[in-house]
Design a protein that fits this description.
Helix content: 40-55%
Distance between the termini: 74 Å
Largest sheet: 8 strands, mixed
Oligomer: single chain
Shape: elongated
Amino acid sequence: MTLVLLIAAGLWGLGHFMGATKRARWGMIGALYAVVLLEQSLLPGGHPLREATGGSAAPWLLLGGFAVLAVLYGRGVSWLKARAQPAEQAEPAKPARVGAFEAGELERYARHIVLRELGGPGQKRLKESKVLVVGAGGLGSPALLYLAAAGVGTIGVIDGDEVDNSNLQRQIAHREEDIGEPKVFSAIRAMSARNPFITLKPYHRELTEEIAPALFAEYDLVLDGTDNFDTRYLVNRIAVATCIPLVSGALSQWEGQLSVFDPAQDAPCYQCIFPAPPAPELAPSCAAAGVLGPLPGVLGTMMAVEAVKLLSGAGEPLRGRMLIYDALYAETRQIALKRRADCPICGR
């Protein structure tokens, strides 16, 4: 048994030396454990290999059982902490700073303040605004970072997922060392490092019909960066019900789209344009269809631009218009959108 433990330690050390992730190293040790169990189960008693690895499967089964219990216990504790006190796992929340700018903020936002369309009053409106971002993935990552850098005073982010290795190709708020951590806490850390003058609120949970109305009511604007139609329709319903503008983005493969849905300003809502979700084969997920790594950065940054315009009163937001970006051919186009009188969400 000692020999197997030494081999396991050697595999762990070799993996660390070669730069393998913890998940990969645990995978190697799991494979070693499976080989030992096979030896104990298939080889006859007294066989040299069986004797060298403990002589019996019983201690290995006990060890495996204790390991499984330890993992389940750890995950259970992490889940309970995330549900009960999600903010405690993130960076300490900064107190709200409403009103006058603090030392260092005027210099930080100087390039905004000299813009005629934004200026000091527009930057002050950003500081006093509250934005909720639904989803901390491909679209949410760049949107969150740029909203934080722009000085939006309070930013909330809700997402129930954890960082996975496959996310790192495009979700720029997360790092290699964040793998396995809830996305909201990874994103909060990245935003806090970008701007210490803002208040950040992580919600490590899925958005549901039960919590959405009260949550949306705390914010002035919602950005939807989710990747499933059920959540998109839910976000749209609650945004319309609470009269909150919705900046919505979507993408697949090489193409993305962006619009501002705001029936309170006589613009259509999401369900006016998409009355029902498409068939799964017509709108495959990014995992199935693929997606260009920089594409979420382009669309997520555009979402942040629309948010800044809406909050500050600058320019002309994408109300009643949809911008479509084709990265493969470097083309953009716009289409006009109209409300539907028979829309079950915002119809007159």
